[in-house]
Amino acid sequence: MAGAQALGIASRFNAIKVAAYKLNKQDIEAASGMDHHLIPVPSVFIIDTKGIIRFAHTDSNHRKRIETEEILRVAQQLAKG
Questions:
Q1: pLDDT tens-digit profile of 66-78?
Q2: What CA–CA distance (Å, rounded) separates 11 from 62?
Q3: At 20, is the pLDDT very low, low, confident or very high (cuts 50, 70, 90)?
Q4: Can you tell me the distance from the alpha carbon of 81 to that of 45, in angstroms, rounded to the nearest whole number?
Q5: 10 Cα distance to chain centroid
Q6: What is the DSSP string of 27-46?
Q7: pTM, entire model
Q8: d(CA 63, CA 59)
């Protein structure tokens, strides 16, 4: 989780959300083995060969994901310079 925190993509669930997940048979504490209630936000990064982040997409809505075609379009544009 330290990596997610360093990248700013860690979201903390409050007690109500943790309880709601447990009601739906999704125990984040059991799954992670931790009780910090930090969840990584779905994210996509394109990093160049020098380690520089050239594209970043994050969305705290865990059900909403970037389309594959969009990632490929950005990667192709970055490859062209």
A1: 999 999 999 999 9
A2: 11
A3: very high
A4: 17
A5: 7
A6: -HHHHHT-SS-EEEPPEEEE
A7: 0.72
A8: 9
